[in-house]
Amino acid sequence: MQINYEFWCETCDKGFQTLQILDHHKSQHQKCNIDGCQFVAHPKVITKHIQMQHSTGLYKKIANLNNPEDIQKWREERKRRYPTKENIEKKAVEIAEKLERGEKMGIKFGQNNKRHNQGQPTRAKQHFGKGKTREQHNNFS
Q1: What letters, b where the CB count within 10 A reaches 16 and e where it falls short, cover 17-53?
Q2: What are the coiled-coil residue ranges (predicted)?
Q3: Of 16, 7, 11, 8, nearest to 46 (Cα)?
């Protein structure tokens, strides 16, 4: 059964069945206010906004894009650094060269890099007594 939501909160990207429920939801919205940010949304969305915008430093990069020239320059930089196959290969070569020289500072090892956590079980695979994994332990089986 699919519910058809007639009322929608654009900011939170969430639907509601009645206008009263939507109004109640919107009454819970709060302003971010970090670094003068004017973003307004539900506290759960604000938490994600802070993680994705402020904690990464992205907000400071885009907050002052007020004129078309700055916006165009920012877009060009994003396009130049977009992870195309060519850019990924260039980055892999750079990392290999740094590792050959013994440089490890500033290199971020991703999940697909075999050097990262080699031989260590993931959190889900850690054992919790009598051979149970975390999932089994949490499910009380």
Answers
A1: eeeeebeeebeebeebeeeebebebbeebbeebbeeb
A2: none
A3: 11
CB of 31 within 8 A of CB of 39?
Answer: yes
What sign does the dihedral 60-43-38-76 (CA atoms) show? positive
Q: Is 104 left (phi over 0), alpha (psi -120 to 50) or beta?
A: alpha
Task: Dump pLDDT digits (tens) for 51-97.
Answer: 999 998 888 888 778 788 888 988 898 898 888 999 999 989 999 99
Q: How many CB atoms lie within 10 A of CB 12?
A: 17
Contact between 11 and 41 under an 8 Å Cβ cutoff? The reply is: yes
Q: CA 17 to CA 7: how far, in whole Å?
A: 6
